[in-house]
Design goal:
Distance between the termini: 22 Å
Number of domains: 3
Structural class: alpha/beta
Order of helices and strands: EHEEHEHEHEHEHEHEHEHHEHEEHEHH
CATH class of the largest domain: Alpha Beta
Oligomer: single chain
Helix content: 25-40%
Largest sheet: 6 strands, mixed
Shape: elongated
CATH architecture of the largest domain: 3-Layer(aba) Sandwich
Low-confidence stretches: 1-7, 35-45, 306-310, 404-410
CATH superfamily of the largest domain: P-loop containing nucleotide triphosphate hydrolases
Number of strands: 14
Radius of gyration: 24 Å
Length: 410
């Protein structure tokens, strides 16, 4: 599986049957030979990411995939990997040729629609055989959009293709919204409460803390980083009144007591929940913790892999806190990374997603959709912790004010 990870560039997937000209199309867009071209079908065996700048368009990641018509035991595995890339791309280019369309293309456009992905159907090798009128009419009928004629050999309609990609790809793929830009202004002071415990990486801060610091600086504000035991002394000695305080969720109770209640307080995890999670569904799902019953099963989704400590937040602390809050006998499962679930999502009464600092909004959104479609409540690590510790309303308050005016990025 190709992982989009922390790449912020738009991801464009190239799909089609073997030997339809996918790699030639990539080379044409890149203006260089970055994909192997061969007359032998199946040259591209696994999805490969290629980062470059399309002239007149900008930096992108093209995802080159194996032919959707691959066969045999290994071929079917390659097809599965090809379809797996739909979780991380922002738009698709479906390459056809020889006026050919069949079950493979039907399945692809169904998958595109299921993933809410915009796509362009490109008739490649048009220098050898042009698309006929009947085929063009068929594509328009099936997809609702005209067939695009292209040739890598003579680069016909190249500029038109670049323009079409630019207008087709979702705007959110280019925009990098601010984590805190709607909460802070020039010169504001933001306190970041960052415990250094067994789970903190040696010699550095965790990614959400670093992201918050960068975003604060980008917004011309001031970041003050403190351990939880230093907060009271700092506020007393300096008399500073911050515009916002952000805490690690694990010390929410301590932060709540240290930060005066006229100062907004939230957590790094909730900050990420609003930034890249399904915040509206988190708001609906979090109170469902109070409705958990004996025998219910809760799924915790860690969207990264890390060293597991004896007091791990997802595997130990959250289950302990929820069990203590509800007083119920609850079963907990943890799935790390983007691995498949070991049981149907409908077996769960609640899904708790981590902040998702290591994955993209698109990946996190797709990760949650099976549960949401099945009617399973979803929440976020930080929101769940705040709820069971009795400070939920305060923790979400900074993001509730004016929420109706926020942009939607998915």
């Amino acid at each position: 599986m190709v992982n989009k990870g922390r790449e912020s560039k738009p991801h464009i997937g190239i799909y089609g049957r073997r030997n339809n000209g996918k790699s030639s199309l990539i080379n044409s867009l890149a203006g260089q030979d970055i994909a192997i071209v061969s007359d032998h079908p199946g040259t591209t065996t696994d999805p490969v990411k290629k980062s470059f700048e399309i002239t007149g368009f900008g930096p992108v990641i093209l995802v080159d995939t194996a032919g959707i018509d691959d066969s045999g035991e290994l071929g079917l595995k390659r097809v599965d990997r090809t379809l797996g890339t739909l979780e991380i791309i922002d738009m698709a280019l479906l390459v056809v040729t020889d006026n050919s369309w069949g079950k493979y293309e039907d399945e692809l456009i169904k998958q595109f629609d299921d993933h809410d992905l915009p796509y362009i159907v490109i008739h490649s090798k048009s220098d050898i055989q042009q698309p006929d009128a009947e085929f063009q009419h068929t594509i328009l009928r099936l997809t609702g959009s005209p067939l695009f004629e292209f040739s890598s050999a003579d680069k016909r309609n190249y500029e038109e293709l670049i323009s079409l990609i630019r207008t087709t790809i979702p705007e959110h793929s280019f925009r990098t919204p601010s984590l805190l830009g709607d909460l802070i202004t020039y010169g504001d002071i933001v306190i970041l409460i960052t415990p250094i415990d067994i789970e903190a990486p040696a010699g550095r801060l965790i990614l959400p803390q670093m992201q918050a610091i960068r975003d604060i600086l980008d917004n011309e504000a001031v970041a003050i980083v403190l351990k939880e035991r230093e907060v009271d002394s700092f506020l007393k000695k300096t008399g500073v009144k911050p515009a916002l305080a952000i805490t690690d969720s694990q010390v929410f109770v301590k932060a709540d007591s240290s930060i005066p209640h006229d100062i907004p307080l939230t957590s790094f995890s909730i900050m990420l929940a609003r930034f890249k999670g399904d915040f509206d569904n988190y708001l609906k799902g979090t109170p469902k913790i109070s409705e958990l019953k004996d025998g219910d099963r809760v799924l915790l989704l860690e969207s990264c892999t890390h060293h597991v400590s004896c007091d791990d937040i997802g595997r130990t602390k959250i289950p302990r806190w929820i069990t203590a809050f509800t007083g119920k006998k609850i079963e907990y499962d943890v799935v790390a990374g983007l691995d498949a679930l070991s049981r149907p999502v409908t077996d769960y009464s609640l899904v708790i997603q981590c902040g998702g600092c290591m994955i993209t909004r698109k990946q996190l959104y797709n990760r949650l959709q099976p549960a949401i479609r099945a009617g399973v409540p979803v929440t976020n690590y930080g929101m769940a912790i705040a709820y069971v510790q009795g400070i939920y309303d305060r923790a979400i308050a900074p993001f509730i004010k004016g929420k109706a005016n926020e942009d939607t990025y998915l």
